[in-house]
Each structure stands twice: as C-alpha cells, then as structure tokens.
Amino acid sequence: MKEINATAEAIADIDKKIDKLVKKIELLRYVNPINIEEEKQRFFKSKYLTDPVFEYPKRDFDKFKLHREFFTLPLELIEDEKIRGLYEEIIYYYSGMVQCIETVGEGKRFYYNSLRSFGKPTEQDVENAKFILHFDAEDTSEEIFQPNYSIKEAEKLFREYADRYDFSFNIKESDTMGAIAMVLNSTQTLVLNSNHTFSKNEMGILTNHEIGVHMVTTMNGVLHPLKIFSHGFPNNVETQEGLAVFSEYMSGNLTIKRLKELAYRVIAVNSLVKGSSFSKTFRLLHNNYDLERNQAFYITTRIHRGGGFTKDYLYLTGLKKIYDYFHSGKDLSVLLTGKVSLEYVNDIEYLINKGYAEHAKYITDSYVANSNTNTTIDFILKNLK
Fold this sequence. Notes:
This protein is mainly alpha-helical and about 375 residues long. It has a domain at about 120-385. The protein is built from 17 helices and 5 strands. InterPro entries: MATCAP.
C-alpha cells in the first residue's frame, strides 16, 4: 500500500508541475495573426501577387526555462510503467508545442515544427479531398446559408444552446482571427469573430462543434484529478476535431458545402507542403477551384499562418476515423473525457480503473440520436479511404 501511495504522490506531483508549465502554451493564442483584415485588403489590391505580412501576439514565457523544467521532471519516480510512458509522451508533445509557439512567424522554422507536431496529408488524404470536391454543394442562395445573425445575436444563440449543458463559460469577441469561432481551452472561453455575420447553418455547425464538443471536452477535462486531460494528450487535435465535425453530422447540420470546405483545407495544406507561397495557394483555390476570393483568402490564411500550419488537414481524417469508430459500435463517451486521442483509449480506461480519472460527466447531446438525413453525405463518408 505504501508503494502504491508513493506512486500516486509522484504522479500527482508531476502532473501538478506540468499543469503549471503548460498554462501559457495554448498554440491558438499565438498563431492567429492580429492584422488579417488589413493584409487581406493589401493582398486583394496587389491582384493576389504580394503575400501578406502577418503580425502575431507576443510570446509571454521564457522558452528556455520552460524546456528545461519539462525535461528535468523526475518521471522515474512514477513506478507504474504504463503511466510513466504516457507522461513521457505527453512531455515530448508539450515540448513540441513550445517549439511551435517560439517560432511563430519565422517561416520554415515554424513550418517544420508544425510538421513534427501535426504531420501532413498523405496521397490518400488528398485523393479523399478531391473525391469530395466532385459532389455539388447545396444552393448557397437557400435561406439557411444567408448571413442573418450579428455577433450579438450569435452570442445569444450560443448561450441558449449551452443551456442544455450544466456548465458556464466566457464569450469574447475578436477582430483578429481567421476562424469565425474557436474555444480557448485554458480560459474556458468561446471567441467569436466580430467581423463575421453568421448564417443559420453556421450557427447549427458552430453550436454543435464548439460548445457540443470543444467546450464539453474542456469542461470534462477539468473534472479529473490529473490535469493532462485538460491540457491535452499527444495528437489530440485529429480526435477532437473529428469529434466536433461528427457532432455537426449527428445533429443534421453537416452539409456538402461544409465537407467541401474541409476538403479545400486538405488541398491547401498539400499546396503548402509542396512549397507553394501564400499567393500561389490562394490562386489554386480561387482560380483552379473557383472558390470565392474571401473564402479562399481565409482558408489560405489558416494554412499559411505562422509560417505554415499543417493542422487543418486533420479535420477530415479525424471525421473519417470517428465516423468509422462510431459505426463499429464503440462508445464515444471515453473520447469526451477531455482533450484526449483515439490511440490512447486503453490508457484512458486504465487511468479510470486506477482511480486517476473519471468517466465523462458531460456528453455531446447530438450523439444521442443520428439526425442526419442526407444520404449523399453518408455515401461520401462511407467511401473515404
């Protein structure tokens, strides 16, 4: 019993120290340019030839001190081999995030760190994207696609949607983000793009995506004795974004238009990987794929921000993995326990059994029943390789 208590103490102590170290390393706080709208106007004025020069928030931590403190943690005190191995992988993952943040805006240096942390699309991923692009999207003149909701109206709808969950969170506005909404995990904050007017379909997508999954896993994550559930397991982006888009599907809000948007992100990341500049990736989307120029700009910005951010291809690969996982009859609730990854399901269950973690308190409500009625979307998702 004394040995078990010693191991539990070591785990708790190391987890607490990691929690303190990672408070400031939420990548999305640093990689979003603060001058997107100005650079968009300059780029359009140049006839799509002069690449934007983005500026980024200042880093507010000592990178050398952070790296040193991560790698001097006494993991050898954790006698449970399985848990010790998990913490080793987590430390390497967080170290990779620090390297990403410290090189934001430094071109290839950031790009190579992004590759190490998020990978790049395979040829099959690109083929999957092209397969989706063969399908005709819905008629965008339909009422559900019309921009009708102001930022204040959207905030009200988010609050009303969130009433179905027994938790509270912050909402703030930003005019310096490429996405139209995102959740900041560390501050339990939903950030809305104040430059955007929202459509009914976007509200259906975003409530289920941002609140129904990202905020749900944020709130579940803080309930565990171990803070790693809150800050994130290695490679959690693919699983978390897959769960979020799957919530769009289960709630009946996923459209072919939305699937094509995710496919364009894969195409854009592949363009980046092949060495294309911002303007070349933009022209590929705008000229070759007939994407409206504002949408082409924002997708290109998402991919080229920081110096080359490859993360966005994972939305489509994650969706396919979660779709197959669900249809194989497996329980999604274990993946809602926090910012966790599909490949760590056995580790999560092990931690729960050992008393170091809890079952998910909040469950994504769209997962209760499948409300998708679009047979074409099912055909597409079943046939992705």
